[in-house]
Amino acid sequence: MADALVFVAGAALVLWGVAHITATKSVVDSFGEISADNRRILVMEWVAEGVTHISIGGLVILLAALEGSTDPAARLVYRVLAGVLVVLAVLTSFTGARTPVVWFKICPFVLTGAAALLLAGSSL
Q1: In sequence order, what are the residues at sequence separation of 6 or more whose Cβ sits closer than 8 angstroms to the Cβ of residue 64?
Q2: What are phi and psi of 30, to 5 degrees?
Q3: Do the Cβ atoms of 88 and 78 come closer than 8 Å?
Q4: One-character DSSP codes across 36-72
Q5: Which of 62, 92, 117, 120 lies 20 to 30 A from 4 at CA?
Q6: Domain map of the chain by residue range?
Q7: 33 SS3 class
Q8: Tens digits of per-residue pLDDT, 29-72?
């Protein structure tokens, strides 16, 4: 059961990261006419967050596949990554989620949900 929770968290993060990257153009375009520098910064942030989600999800899946959820080091990694996800969720709640962009409003729930699954999986 613990492995399943961890795999679901990892898969959700990978999918959310891919969705982030896929939606980059439409999100940036939704800001209307902005300077080239501001456009580059938005693209950088959006893609960087997507890569972060994919990387965390990939690490979780790889660690679960190689070591399982009962390995003490794996449990520590899952807990640390859950903390990272909560920090990102809080950051997004106070910044992007206050905009009309739906993706930003959903993000804290996805990240908090993945963090909860990681904590649950590392505790069983």
Answers
A1: 3, 6, 7, 10, 74
A2: -65, -15
A3: no
A4: HHHHHHHHHHHHHHHHHHHHHHHHHHHHHHHH-SSSH
A5: 92
A6: 2-123
A7: coil
A8: 988 999 999 999 999 999 999 999 999 999 999 999 999 888 99
